Amino acid sequence: MAKINFGGVEESVITREEFPLSKAAEILKDETIAVIGYGVQGPGQAMNLRDNGFNVIVGQRKNSKTWDKAVADGWVPGKTLFEIEEACEKGTIIQYLLSDAGQIALWPTVKKHLTPGKALYFSHGFGITYKEKTGIVPPADVDVILVAPKGSGTSLRRMFVAGRGLNSSYAVFQDATGKAKDRVIALGIGVGSGYLFETDFKREVFSDLTGERGTLMGAIQGIFAAQYQVLREHGHTPSEAFNETIEELTQSLMPLVAENGMDWMYANCSTTAQRGALDWWKPFRDATLPVFEKLYSEVANGNEAQRSIDCNSKPDYREGLEKELKELRESEMWQAGAVVRQLRPENNK
Ligand SMILES: NC(=O)c1ccc[n+]([C@@H]2O[C@H](COP(=O)([O-])OP(=O)(O)OC[C@H]3O[C@@H](n4cnc5c(N)ncnc54)[C@H](O)[C@@H]3O)[C@@H](O)[C@H]2O)c1
Ligand SMILES: CC(C)(O)[C@@H](O)C(=O)O
Ligand SMILES: [Mg+2]
Ligand SMILES: [Mg+2]
After folding, report:
1. Ligand 4 centroid – CA 149 distance (Å)
2. CA-150 nearest atom, ligand 2
3. What is the 3-state secondary structure (H, E, C) of 112-124?
4. Is residue 332 a known part of a binding site?
5. What is the ipTM of this complex?
6. 211-347 classified as CATH 1.10.1040.10
7. Residue 39 Cα to ligand 1 middle (Å)
8. Whether residue 124 lies in the annotated active site
9. Which residues contact 19 (CB under 8 A, 6 or more apart)?
10. Ligand 2 atom 2: the closest Cα is on which residue?
11. What is the DSSP-derived secondary structure letter of residue 176?
12. Averaged confidence pLDDT in the chain
């Protein structure tokens, strides 16, 4: 395990150099990895494991769109694709990749097949950390482990195919066999992680829920909407407002941040822009800090988990989500965005 200094704090990290795929293959050579659920993470992790040469099967509800998607992705009914219960029975490692609410509903089925020595794998600390709400309490004689890719399952797959790797965190909650750590790291490498950093189930779920509600998804849409509104109210056109709020960020500036950090992106803008950005980032930080504090406390006290369970356990939760996504899609800002995307020369041949 490499010790790496992150801005003055030393952390343990597993790299592909010290833990190559051949080592992962040796550790998992006698295992059957059952990936349960074929939504977003399921396909990414299952296909990466398969392409890396592991023995993988998929468990998914028959007569569902995602069953058909699994077939289209090359999983063969009766050979590598099964009903959820049958896959749980066959798997020695059960990768529990149903939605977090779906995991509650299917828990009695999965638990039945957690015989001694098996491993139960999550990609989120949710089910275990909020066990009073989820009822997910694994038997003592199985390993309970986590690999949480830090990004969408879609990116996990795309980056793997492109020869890159998304970073993941990993954790061991319960080591019943003495092999849990080897198993979890081997699986983390197997699903295509670029490198793995250590966490525990609680820290994973608290940081993940905060991140996706905050800068990764919730806060960013909020700040986009606020700036777009101000520009529009002051007479700017939709194309100008969209370009100045989002298109320039995703197409020009964020790739520079990803490549070499914020100061480097700033350094590649005008001194006028640098002066303004250096003056204004602190007021934005100060304005949003109380919202982030409130968000973290709602995550830590379990309210966010409860809300997610309540909403996503409804039989018509998909329809409700689709309605809210449609509202976003049909807002003037994102309608302008659709037109701007079409005008990118690469989309407009
Ligand atoms: N989406 C991501 O990219 C991502 C990233 C990191 C971690 N995670 C975690 O990975 C896990 C899986 O997330 P996801 O986004 O891939 O899930 P998802 O919402 O796409 O759902 C996965 C599957 O669960 C099935 N499902 C839902 N409820 C069910 C029920 N009651 N019975 C049977 N099947 C049911 C769906 O049909 C789908 O095939 C979660 O713990 C999530 O927090 C997801
Ligand atoms: C992709 C994310 C946002 O990182 C993940 O946490 C999720 O829940 O989908
Ligand atoms: Mg998440
Ligand atoms: Mg996440």
Report:
1. 7
2. 4
3. HCCCCCCEEEECC
4. no
5. 0.98
6. yes
7. 5
8. yes
9. 185, 186, 189
10. 151
11. S
12. 97
Size of the chain, expressed as the number of residues it contains: 349
User: Ligand nearest 321 Cα, by number?
Assistant: 1
22 pLDDT tier (thresholds 50, 70, 90): very high
- Helix or strand run (H / E) with residue 33: strand 33-36
Angle subtended at Cα 168 by Cα 167 and Cα 171, rounded to the nearest 5 degrees: 155
Q: Is 132 part of any known ligand binding site?
A: no
CA of 214 to the centre of ligand 3 (A): 11
For residue 15, pLDDT beyond 90: yes
Q: State CA 81 to chain mean position distance.
A: 23
With the most atoms of ligand 1 within 8 angstroms of its CB, the residue from 41, 65, 129, 146 to mutate is 41
**113-141 pLDDT per residue, tens:** 999 999 999 999 999 999 999 999 999 99
In this model, does residue 349 exceed pLDDT 80? no
278 lines ligand 2 (CB under 6 A): no
Confidence of residue 1 (pLDDT cuts 50, 70, 90): confident
- Other beta carbons within 10 Å of 2: 12
Q: What residue's CA is closest to ligand 2, atom 3?
A: 212
Edge-to-edge, what's the strand order for the sheet holding 2-6? Answer: 2-6, 9-15, 193-198, 166-174, 143-149, 119-122, 93-96, 33-36, 56-59, 81-82
- The letter for the amino acid at 109 is T
Q: How is the chain split into domains, by residue range?
A: 2-199, 211-347
CB of 31 sitting under 6 A from ligand 2: no
pTM, to two decimals: 0.97
Q: What's the pLDDT score for residue 261?
A: 98
Residues 199-237: pLDDT tens digits?
A: 999 999 999 999 999 999 999 999 999 999 999 999 999
CATH of the domain spanning 2-199, picked from 3.40.50.720, 1.10.510.10, 1.10.10.10, 3.40.50.1980 = 3.40.50.720
* Rounded distance from Cα 194 to ligand 1 centre (Å): 22
